[in-house]
Amino acid sequence: MLKRLTLVLAILFALLLGALLLGPFLIPTETVQALGSASAAATPRSRFLSIPFPGTEGVGIHYLETPGRGGMTWVLLHGLTLNAFTWGRVEGGLAKRGRVLAYDQIPHGLSAKLKRGDWRGPHPYAKESAIAQLIAVLDRLGIERAHLIGSSSGGTLALEAALAHPERVESLILIAPWVYLQHPTVPAMITELPQMRRLTLLIGRFLGERTLLDLTHPQPQEIGEERRRLALIHTRMANWDLAWGELMARALSTPVDVGGRLAQVRQPVLVMTGDQDPLVPVEDSRRVAAGLASAELVVLAGCGHVPQEECPEAFLDAVDRWLESGLRPQGEPQAAAGSGHRTAD
Fold it and tell me: Which domain does 160 fall in, by range?
């Protein structure tokens, strides 16, 4: 009896191991849909530019721009799976202070969908590459210094840019920044295995067909059809899924490590979070604010992970109050770490 049980267990283990090793090969590696181009999917507001990137003939960037009535220049950085359209409900309010620019980080939105074989140099989805691409966008649009607003992983990019190029960043607004929310990481050599490449492609397809807008919104029934269409606009471009698979593979091998360098950020910072955020706990945002040299934390009541979409009036009110409290230019004395905190109703 014991021998028979042992044999059954051995067979089950072998089947499970075989499924793990061979199952991913059932995932198709040809692009699943869409043969369109960025220009074909573009909206009346869409604008495009090409930025240089090593190992390519240039990278196409889609962006939206709103002329401003003030002297500030806002550059808006969306989070993972979203795109420049996430800022649609707050662009007008921000434009009261100055020029507003929102662009799609590759491979999101209508920006380039680079797949394996499309580059010969640095990985275009690496952290350092995202920083370089941000600076290249600023250069192409003649922006010497900008006020960066980053949502979720866009907040992490804003922090990294402020550390790498402090001369280009005036201030930061970080919305539920992805700093302490760690994801599992594996060595790059593992992500290159055929099975892992297919699994990350599957993850890319899953997230790309849903986006975090649906997965994190506290009231998903309030998301209109037009907003959903814009959130999924990347799926109208050829090879979007192959590009997202490359992004996910790179993300799995890249730990988030900016948390240990927060004290080096010299710009004034507003940290904003919603008290209903299901992804980044409020305590994580509180910890980010406390680690910065000059920061204020605002907790928005009844808001989730993307308050710029869920509660734009509260978002803009928090920004206005922070600006009216007086931004300090670089070089002036800074407030104590984590000096401010308030809850917005």
Answer: 44-328+335-344
The whole-number pLDDT of residue 252 equals 86
Q: Has residue 319 been placed in a domain? A: yes
> Quick check: helix, strand or coil at residue 254?
coil
> Of 92, 128, 83, 127, whose CA–CA distance to 236 is shortest?
83
DSSP 123: -
Question: Which residues on neighbouring strands pair with residue 60, listed in sequence order?
Answer: 50
Q: Which amino acid is at 190?
A: I
CA-to-CA distance for 149 and 306, rounded, in angstroms? 12
- For strands 146-151 and 169-175, give the pairing: parallel
Which SS3 state, helix, strand or coil, does residue 101 take?
A: strand
Tell me how many domains the chain contains.
1
What is the token pair recorded at 217?
């919104």
The letter for the amino acid at 155 is G
- pLDDT tens readout for residues 238-281: 999 999 999 999 998 888 889 999 999 999 999 999 999 999 99
Question: For the whole model, what pTM was predicted?
Answer: 0.86
**Minimal CA–CA distance to 46: which of 94, 86, 104, 131?**
104
- Cα 37 vs. chain centroid, distance in angstroms? 22
